[in-house]
């Protein structure tokens, strides 16, 4: 007798051993990931939104904003790899497991078994030929230093210097001057993250935030800022560009920059010193952004939930 169903095989194995089979949602993976099995999982759990062909045009996709991921494009926002690269299997599995906040993509970790989740990741990769020769490598994410008022204060200056406010707003409310005109690579309107909300789409823990501005979000206006943190303190501050800030804040920014190494100083630094400066500024930005998070009241919860219908 041929047993092709992995669940049947698992049942036979545990019966012979006299063990009890765990529930489907908690069952551990017993076999290597299989795209063939994943096709059946995709059909029952994913196709309604992402489409039978993986193009994001399933029968339920019409009213959704943001739109379901188009797997055929090979562009994935949430990754631990460099900008423009493909995600790792672990990246894909994280999204399947945890879902995406402020969207209709639910977490599947308590609905599908581990085997099913691994299998559907293998199947999703079949939609894009870009996975065939991809050898994605994850970026290095060091352990974050503890937050402090000094880190938060410097992070505000980094936020201003890198002009994160142009999209995210001067106070992180996603209301910057460029926010309303942003489009993704599919021509859909897209909103920058509101840093004051409790939940970010890819997590608001320090490592997730660090990862996002280092990797960027493929297919969106959010590019990688990995190489932007070694700015020299000798740059001029344009008052017109920074007109959204008070004169006092612009003066504080100018004083901060004047206290920093110049471009020439940075060029003369050892690689170790450059990395130390870069990491300090990166974690300062992380801690500043996390300082903006507010525990929502009832009105805040309603506002956050409205993202689901935008």
Report on the architecture of this protein:
This protein has twelve helices and no strands. By secondary structure, it is mostly helical. The chain is elongated, with a radius of gyration of 23 Å. Residues 1-26 and 305-310 have low confidence and may be disordered.
SSE order and pairing:
Elements: H1 6-17, H2 35-45, H3 47-50, H4 89-98, H5 114-124, H6 149-161, H7 165-168, H8 206-215, H9 247-258, H10 263-268, H11 271-291, H12 298-305
The sequence of SSEs as H and E is HHHHHHHHHHHH
Which whole number gives the mean pLDDT?
A: 88
How many helices? The count is 12
Number of strands: 0
**Termini separation (Å)?**
53 Å
Shape, please?
A: elongated
Properties at a glance:
single chain, elongated, disordered N terminus
